[in-house]
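ligand=D-glutamic acid
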Amino acid sequence: MNNSSIGLLDSGVGGLSVLSELYKIMPNQNYVFFGDTKNVPYGTKSPEEIFSYTKNILDFFISKKIKIAIFACNTTSAVAYDRLKEHFEDKIKIYPLIQSVAKYTIEGLKDNDTVAILATKATINSKKYNNEIKKYNPNINIIGIDCTGFVEIVENRLYENPQSIELIKSKLEIARNHNAKRIILGCTHYPYLKKHFKNILDVEYFNPANTLAKIIKNDLNNNNQKGTLKFYVSKNPDGFIKSAKTFFNVEKASLIDI
Ligand code: DGL
């Protein structure tokens, strides 16, 4: 690890969907991923709890001399970023997911089109997507759908479980009833479910991770070093590795209590 490492944080394996996009277009960077598997899911926790988990991870990154932190997590971007940014401003550059990509989520949409946000309870309650999108177009209809339970499906790899499919159907039904033109994957765990989503409701899906990766690439200097990947979790490294194999050939995640 060195000064140029990029830290990514999430409650668990969701953030790997962001890391994989970064790695695709910038394989020559050094990445440190922290999955807070001890405290997953974040989305049903209080803002105070989410703030404190996120702060601890940023302190951990700083202790590792990391200069860039990516919130590979919508929930922390929605609930904790505003409070954390001043405190950490001089110490680490933070990229919050929602605020970084909001402008692009509605690209190509017209006034009165409807966009549906699938996200955790905390993200939906925060109205962060609504507020950020409205800055760019106040005339887009935004439907927030609280998808509590999806994170557990992903963390426990219950993709084919009939109850999982029923839950997913019931949430997408809301988007269908509102005639949503586009669906935003407002939680980084949800790209793991994309195949199911498409089978149930065949509309356009927006994965903010692609856009965020491009924004970051644009900001960083290119280099010719050989990139590295390092994974830390706060609990259950074996479970993490099983899920992580969707995106990476991960062999090891270090267990760390922060
Ligand atoms: N993957 C995170 C997000 O994007 C957190 C999900 C959770 O732990 O509830 O919101």
